Amino acid sequence: MSITLTLHESAAERLATQLPAPATLHVAGIVPPHAAAAYAPLAVTATFVGSVTADFALILTDGSFLAAAGGTQQGHAAVVSAIDVLRPAMEHAAAAFDAGVLGELREEDAAGLLSDPETAVFELRQRQAMDGGQAFGWFAVRVREHGTVQDAAAARSIQPGAVSSRLGLISNVEMALTVEIGRTRMSVRDALALEPGKVIELDRSAGAPADVLLNGRLIAHGEVVVVDQDYAVRITRILDVAEGIY
Fold it and tell me: From CA 9, how far away is CA 70, in angstroms rounded?
């Protein structure tokens, strides 16, 4: 567990160095989850998938600095959204867990993540506030073994067939399945300069597996194939995300 917590802390420290805050941030230490509970509904969350699966939540006491970091034009919204402003810092944090893919950043309530005993919560403070004052924010990290956080007691309490019978009630509900072969980042200038024939390099090498997402959630990896002149994906690995079906 100590090795895992070292990775947790390393991710928090990497995030702190990259956040576009008005002053240098530091990790003040690990704190009880309830310290961030009041601000949990305003969290930005993401899931990292690589050799391990990790869930992140960044919880800020005041996110007004994000508007300035995103740039504004008089009478218009920010040029770059708060989510896009935060993504480089979250990606830098995820790099503590080696190679992998950071999923979509979402603005959502992180109360569920904070309530999990497997989650470590690190307090972020500005240097001048290290000895007192209000926290700048918190960074919550949960590492899932083989992609799953299991509650043994809850698992034993479920009767055989209970899960499948519940899923049967929604078996006809349609969901959006998306295949993603890679991503890239570019400046607004480069995006405006796009034209037919332009080649965009992605962050994935040829032959690397594609991501299969169900309603935006990463569930599997696969390889792109052609079937009767149509593109298709052959599943090569199913990720275990069973904790969300109960």
Answer: 27
CATH fold of the domain at 2-144: Chemotaxis protein chec (3.40.1550)
Find tokens 């072969």 and name the residue. 181
**Each residue of 206-219: pLDDT tens digit?**
778 888 888 778 88
Give the pLDDT score at 214.
80
AA identity, residue 50? G
Q: Cα–Cα–Cα angle for 133, 136, 139, nearest 5°?
A: 130
Contact status, residue 121 vs residue 36, Cβ threshold 8 Å? yes
Please list the residue range(s) of the chain that carry CATH number 3.40.1550: 2-144
At which residue do the structure tokens 């567990």 appear? Answer: 1
Parts of the chain belonging to CATH 2.30.330.10: 161-244
The more confident residue out of 30 and 206 is 30
pLDDT 10s digits, 84-103: 888 888 999 998 887 788 88
CATH domain 161-244 topology: Surface presentation of antigens (SPOA) (2.30.330)
Residue 109 has pLDDT above 70, yes or no: yes
**For residues 3 and 145, what is the distance between their CA atoms, to the nearest angstrom?**
14
pTM: 0.57
